[in-house]
Description:
By secondary structure, the protein is α+β, with helices and mostly antiparallel strands. The chain has one domain (4-153). It is built from 2 helices and 5 strands. It has a 5-stranded antiparallel beta sheet with strand order 1-2-3-4-5. Strand 1 and strand 2 (79-89) form a beta hairpin. Helix 1 (4-22) packs antiparallel against helix 2.
Amino acid sequence: MTDGSSIQIEMLLAAAVRDYLLQQPGHAYRISEDDSLRSVCVVASRLVQGLLTNSDGWSRHAWVDDIEPCTAARDSSNGLLLTGLLIWANDTKSGFLMDPLYASIRFSESSPTQLIYEIRFGNADRGLGKCSFGTSQDYPYVPVDNWLFTFVAGE
C-alpha cells in the first residue's frame, strides 16, 4: 500500500496517535470510551483495510469495519502498543466477525511525522472468521503466537 490514500491515512494515524500520547493517562472510565483511543482505532482500521486488500488469504469481498480496543499502553514517549479485536465482514449475510489484532505504532527518531508500525491480525491456529461479533473472545488474555497477517513499515 504505497499510493496517495495510504500516505494520507498514515498521516491521520500519526495525528491520532500523537493526540492519544499527549493526553493524561486514565482519561476514560473504560478503554472503549476513550475518545482519543477511538480515533486511533478508527484510522488504524482504515489502514488495516488497505493493507489487507491485496493480501493472500483475504477475500476481495471482505471489509474492515472497526477495531474494538482491548489494551493500550505507551511503550515510550513516542509509541503505542494496542491490542484489540478487528471487526470485519465478508458479505452481508453472515454478519460481522472479529479476530485478534496487535499493533505497535511509534514515531521515527529521525522524523516526528514518520510512523514505524507492526500490525498483526488473525489467529492462524484458530482460523479467520471463527468468532461472530459480540461472542466471547479470550484474546488478549490468551495470547496469539501464530498470526495470519503481519504488516511492517518504517525503519
